[in-house]
Design a protein that fits this description.
2 copies of one chain form a homodimer.
Chain A lengths: L3 E11 L7 H4 L5 E6 L3 H4 L2 H9 L3 E5 L8 H14 L3 E6 L1 H13 L7 H5 L11 E5 L11 E6 L4 E6 L7 E4 L9 H19 L7 H23 L4 H14 L13 H13 L3 H15 L5 H10 L8 H18 L16 H10 L13 H10 L2
Parallel strand pairs in A: 1-8, 2-3, 2-4, 4-5, 5-8
Antiparallel strand pairs in A: 6-7
Helix pairs in contact in A: 4-5, 7-8, 7-9, 7-11, 8-9, 10-11, 11-13, 11-15, 12-13, 14-15
GO cellular component, one term (chains A, B): cytosol
Family (chains A, B): Belongs to the iron-containing alcohol dehydrogenase family.
Pfam family, one (chains A, B): ADH_Fe_C
Chain lengths: 385, 385
Amino acid sequence: MLNFEFHNPTRIVFGQDTTSSLHELVPRNARVLILYGGQSAERNGTLAEVRKALGDRTHYEFGGIEPNPTFETLTKAVGQVHARDIDFLLAIGGGSVIDGTKFVAAAAKYAGDPWHILETVGSVVQEALPFGAVLTLSATGSEMNFNAVVTRKATQTKAFFASPHVFPQFSILDPTKTYTLPPRQLANGVIDAFTHVVEQYLTYPVEARVQDRFAEGLLQTLIEIGPKVVHDPADYDSRANMMWAAAMTLNGLIGAGVPQDWATHLVGHELTALYGLDHARTLAIVLPSMLRVRREGKRAKLLQYAERVWHITTGSEDARIDLAIEKTRDFFESLDVGTHLSDYGIAADAIEGLVQQLQAHGMTQLGEHSDVTLETSREVFEASL
Amino acid sequence: MLNFEFHNPTRIVFGQDTTSSLHELVPRNARVLILYGGQSAERNGTLAEVRKALGDRTHYEFGGIEPNPTFETLTKAVGQVHARDIDFLLAIGGGSVIDGTKFVAAAAKYAGDPWHILETVGSVVQEALPFGAVLTLSATGSEMNFNAVVTRKATQTKAFFASPHVFPQFSILDPTKTYTLPPRQLANGVIDAFTHVVEQYLTYPVEARVQDRFAEGLLQTLIEIGPKVVHDPADYDSRANMMWAAAMTLNGLIGAGVPQDWATHLVGHELTALYGLDHARTLAIVLPSMLRVRREGKRAKLLQYAERVWHITTGSEDARIDLAIEKTRDFFESLDVGTHLSDYGIAADAIEGLVQQLQAHGMTQLGEHSDVTLETSREVFEASL
């Protein structure tokens, strides 16, 4: 096991009918800005519940945070914070709204140009407004970590920041809030959570037995519940397990003391940037090929994955690995998500442009061994046609 | 899944040579009281390391905290805190020293008779001194929770308290600190951790798939590493996995959103009280019989335990359950721990006294269904001869 630090102070309030606990969780005298995305928060009644739970606390609302939250929109929210003398933020939504709220929390307390927060990872954020979240979509794990991704609309730059000052103080996880989501978003959430785990698990063994077992448990859970989450609109148990599993995938727990990969995410980003594919769909395309192309470096863990997650115990090593990768692909497809570039109308002539983008963004040494070169990524794209 | 709250703000610093990080973790201007148990902290060099890491911070030392920390001893430490104007505590040891430090932290800030803290669960503690821990023995999970057990020597009363004000601010977990422990303490630690998991897992199913998988992963890990932990004095990997697994067993994670049992612990306490048996040995005696006697109420989970933890997939339901219990017993015995009362010179004529003690302590409705009556406990003792 590698040395590590683990620290996660976010309070989770989990279960049906828990939104009313805002009444206890938000400070009595807080001046609150509620941040949310589209009209669904209003339509499904969550905003009304939140307003009621806040009681006579002064509160304002800021809607319209985009699926990939933009610096431009969030900067307007920071303006609201200052104009209204806000001292507590409340995010109502999924990963995008929570990521956006983290940025607003940090930017509101930052004296310089807030874009610096996104250029300089973590280090410039010295304080942030306190905030909580009411989760309405499970996928990114933002409800229980201190990471955020923000896009600068003007230049289409996706930027990342992380700071321990932007852990949510609390997150309310009510699985029934996800009942009204469309299947496409639900499938994206399952694939996003699944790939988060794989990026922290499928590297090379370091005798981190607890982390491995936890990762395998999360993968097995997602495999068991995934199809039900997507196809069964109001099944409490599968939505509850999805919500708790997704929070566990990126809260630091399974990534503590182990090597991490993240090449699938970084290679996938270029598909979003050039072709506008949903983030999760890029993962569904890239991950199976990435595992196939990098099988030597990942051999020991791929065999463990085959045995423990897919119960594949017979056949040659390579046959077991092939079958495990095939089952991974089948699982994604069972959620009605295409796993080939051709499913999205992208053909071989796109690969050169994608590789050039990777080069332009400095993505030339990815993965747990820094050995995912541009040539490796090219192979991955070719294997994904 | 049952509704739940989860909150655990303790910072974990894990790995070899991490004690020096005290330099960063303890506030610069702190006036520190170091609390420890016997002479081993001095002998194995941990105290010297701690003193060095504290640098020029003012610090005092208080040794002699017992294996079952007593109210009487801890009250003296509280006196030191007040006399020396201490504002930060540092526990060097295992569960007993950390439990004791939690009590000192709360008592030092409590205006009334500190025994009230132990009589009235949680509610009277409104604040506590901040503290950290350097763990030297893995077993109780005290390094990452807010529970403590303290014994009043005068009356031999074991009392429990819990308060979110006594989470350690940080715990340093260096597996090499456990290299010099005797096999008896190591075996106790493994059994203690194993039984913690079972008390939160082997109840009845509530569709808490993540918690079940995590619990099963911890049990499998303990089974894999247990014999090596006990018999191999300086194996980093097994000690590291033991240390991280033990912290995970009682930090709120696997117990969130599930029913809990704890009858084995409460019944076992009487064996410690009347016959002075190590806590873990009482668990090794009681647990297999408890599972056997209560097989109907636990049937579904026992079958899941048999399949997922012990890979038992053939035979009748009862045969599978019997085999799983037998393997549990064999596992404890493989750590050189007796699992029968007779191994400790306790015979059938002791049972009446033990049952009377349970009655005297109000232990008449234990377990996840409150159906462990005195008659059930009597059966358990009889099955443990």
